[in-house]
Amino acid sequence: MAEELRPPPLTRRHFLATSAAAGFALAVRPVSAETVIRTDAAGLVAGDVSIPVDDGEIPGYLARPEGDGAFPVVLVVQEIFGVHEHIKDVCRRFAHEGYLAIAPEMFYRQGDVSGLRDFDAILAIVRQVPDAQVMADLDAAVAYAAGEQGNVARLGITGFCWGGRITWLYAAHSELVGAGVAWYGRVTGEASELQPRHPVDVAHELNAPVLGLYGGQDTGIPMSEVERMQAALEAADSPSRFHIYPDAPHAFFADYRPSYREAAAEDAWPRAMAWFRDHGVG
Asked: Annotated catalytic, 218?
């Protein structure tokens, strides 16, 4: 079955998008060797994949347990830094929990962020990515997972930072989603052509409960915005909720960055696992 995860011959464009993503974006270096968690692939089928989409293919990473099975599926949505080693490691962590985890490269058409040195340059690419494209690519990743022994009747989604916002949106977009876990993703914002709505705007449309894991010291997502989202969820009678880590900053789960907070991260991971199991994704 490992042969399934061997990608087709690479074009130069495909190579730039996949090989560079094997490390970390230059903008977040140096990576702290003391905090990087490395999850091995023993007992797993794991590797880079090519996911068919309407206009061709996009790269991604997939990890699942070895052997035959109809494994529950978790979409893993990247930060603004792409599908790098931390995101791949998160996929392997899910696979060791019995899931098929798949992380599609969400910025593939707009550009490669991994070789960029400053956040402005990264954001210039990220801001070109339409929400509609992201939703369609995640739909394509679900369809791909279904053909790789994934049981999409037990579908979850999780995402970090940029991907945290997408987690909320996709839970409103897809009727297949059984549960979501959003890690410190933006919940409010100004409407634009590429981002016409934000999580607070779709709180009443969620097809599945979402657990928001957020830091009380996140300077980019004030607690007032989280409270606004919580109020929208309560008005919609949604079972979604937040768990706040009062002393944690943004990206407290990113073990390769200075923002990592071990206590919060080690508490949050089993909370996420329990949320998925309690809502039939597992």
From this structure: yes
